[in-house]
Amino acid sequence: MIKTEGLLGRPFQHGVSDCYSLMRDFYRINFGIDVPDIARPNNWWEPDAEGKHLNLYLDHYSWAGFSIMTSMRPLDWRPGDVILMAIRSSVANHGAILLPDGKIIHHLAGYLSQIEPYSRPLYRDTTVAILRHPEVDPDKLHQETEIDAWELVPKRIRDQLEDARQGTLDV
Predict the structure, then answer these.
(1) Which of 106, 107, 133, 142 is catalytic?
(2) Among residues 14, 19, 107, 133, which one is catalytic?
């Protein structure tokens, strides 16, 4: 079951509550994996005066225990994989975690952390790499749906059962 308590609805604060911190917390909560923190200077993905920029995700993924997937075909990806995107940047500057049913959990700058469909062009068209951690078991991310069994009982039967419970059933 996907555990999202405390992960959704976070306000964005770069270096504190951002896409990388969301990923770190997601892996810790769902898989017991401690992804190391890395310093993230403001606007690290933008080129400096000399045209150089940091590429924090792709320069540090193996150090954090991930491997890069050679396939960019979504059919080869699994829940728990990290999707790296270059949004208005020449380097990967946003990360999301793939969930079942083609959704992602992520934290985009200026927004609250959330779950959304990966199929949005902003995400799909900016994907530059897929990362996988060897200790991630995608079967742990199956979504469970909680239902009230009472709602499955037809209304007329519910009404009769309620009348019987109250002693007002007319037979």
Answers:
(1) 106
(2) 19
106 is catalytic: yes
Spatial contact of 112 and 19, defined as CB atoms under 8 Å apart: no
CA-to-CA separations, 125 to 1, 22, 46, 74, 87, in angstroms, rounded: 29, 22, 19, 12, 9
Name beta bridge partners: 68: 131
Q: Is the dihedral of CA 80, 29, 92, 87 positive or negative?
A: positive
Three-state DSSP at 131 gives: strand
Q: Residue 102: what residue type?
A: G
Look up the CATH superfamily of 19-145.
endopeptidase domain like (from Nostoc punctiforme) (3.90.1720.10)
Note the pLDDT tens digit of each residue in 42-54. 877 877 778 777 8
19 is catalytic: yes
Mean pLDDT of 63-92: 91
